[in-house]
Design goal:
Elements (H helix, E strand, L loop, with lengths): L1 H17 L14 E2 L3 E3 L3 E8 L8 E7 L4 E6 L6 E15 L2 E17 L5 E9 L8 E3 L2 E5 L2 E5 L18 E5 L13 E4 L2 E9 L7 E10 L5 E8 L2 E12 L2 E6 L4 E3 L4 E4 L5 E7 L8 E8 L3 E10 L6 H4 L4
Parallel strand pairs: 2-12, 14-23
Antiparallel strand pairs: 1-3, 3-8, 4-7, 4-10, 5-8, 6-7, 9-12, 10-11, 13-14, 14-15, 15-20, 15-21, 16-19, 16-22, 17-18, 17-21, 22-23
This protein binds copper (II) ion (CU).
């Protein structure tokens, strides 16, 4: 095996020198990564760290990975020829699993004592549970230190405002969290926002594809007072404008319009804003809405004045509100 390995290395080197590419032979482009880069909140996750090369040309002798908050009950998978050790720490918050409270767990795993030649590929595996409360669209980072006899590679960089993930030299393996519920955000325990004479329930919206600059918002509003009021519109930091719209179908064609005089809410009545009917419209979105996030908005009523609410963003859904609309 050693002979085969050496001759393979020599061949590779000769080929690279022949192409005048010897300076690029370190192979630093291939990073240590997680093989599965997405996981759903509240599910179990099998983390497979792929190690495609050594430190420069040296064999890897240890892999150390830090487990972030958000993945709990982590256990390493033992690896023949390697010694595995873990560090246990208290969690920042308690998790519950099978009716049991979990206050601490593995924060670091080290596989050591083996030897993974630079020309070989191998995997280091752990399992864990994704926090059911983890926000969809968030990212967990698993910094890795790869050790060799005379050096190490530190896969610990995370994106910043200045440097995106693609521009990092040695990025930490990353795991993107997908929101737990495929059900509309409205179906979750509905938040209620109240003000004298008004009750607003379960404001929700839908995730938007990147290039779309409008979004729709839905909610239930109940007039608990004794005089009529009107929902006139509102404002939010995520879009230029927030309007009240009506959707209707005429001759089989769906269209919508802004309610110039607002949406009347009679005393004692509940009006539902929902897909295909009345809705709030976020015009001039400043960014895409991501499933699982929340954002604040201010609703304006003719009599009651302003009410602060929070919209929850659900999945894009079968038909995005922005697509149902024939637009302005
Ligand atoms: Cu609209």
């Amino acid at each position: 095996m050693t002979i085969a390995l050496l001759s393979h290395r020599r061949l590779k080197m000769l080929a690279l020198i022949g192409l005048g590419l010897a300076g690029l032979a370190s192979g630093a482009q291939a990073h240590v990564t997680l093989e599965r880069r997405e996981a759903t909140a509240g599910t179990s996750y099998r983390g497979i760290l792929a190690v495609p090369h050594g430190c420069g040309r040296e064999a890897t002798t240890a892999i150390r990975v830090q487990i972030p908050e958000g993945l709990f009950s982590v256990k390493p998978v033992p690896k023949p020829g390697w010694t595995v050790a873990t560090t246990v720490k208290p969690y920042a918050k308690a998790y519950s699993s099978h009716g049991r409270e979990i206050l601490e767990g593995v924060s670091e795993i080290v596989w050591s004592g083996g030897s993974l030649p630079n020309d070989f590929f191998d995997e280091f595996v752990f399992v864990g549970q994704v926090d059911p409360a983890a926000a969809g669209g968030s990212t967990l980072y698993f910094p890795v230190i790869q050790t060799c006899a005379n050096g190490e590679e530190r896969w610990i960089e995370t994106p910043t405002a200045e440097r995106t993930a693609a521009n990092l030299r040695a990025p930490a393996p990353a795991l993107r969290i997908l929101a737990a519920a495929a059900t509309p955000a409205a179906a979750q325990a509905a938040p209620v926002f109240e003000r004298a004479g008004l009750r607003i329930e379960a404001p929700w919206s839908r995730a938007t594809p990147g290039a779309v600059r409008v979004g729709a918002g839905y909610l239930r509003v109940t007039n608990t007072g004794t005089t009529p009021d009107r929902l006139l519109g509102g404002s939010t930091s995520i879009s230029d404008r927030l309007e009240v719209h009506e959707m209707s179908t005429a001759n089989g064609v769906m269209s919508m319009r802004k309610l110039q005089d607002g949406l009347i809410i009679e005393p004692g009545k509940t009006v539902e804003l929902r897909p295909g009917g009345f809705h709030m419209m976020f015009i001039g979105l400043h960014r895409a809405l991501a499933e699982g996030e929340t954002f604040k908005a201010t609703l304006t009523f003719e009599k009651a004045g302003t009410v602060e609410v929070e919209f929850r963003v659900g999945g894009i859904g079968a038909a995005a509100p922005a697509d149902e609309h024939r637009h302005h």
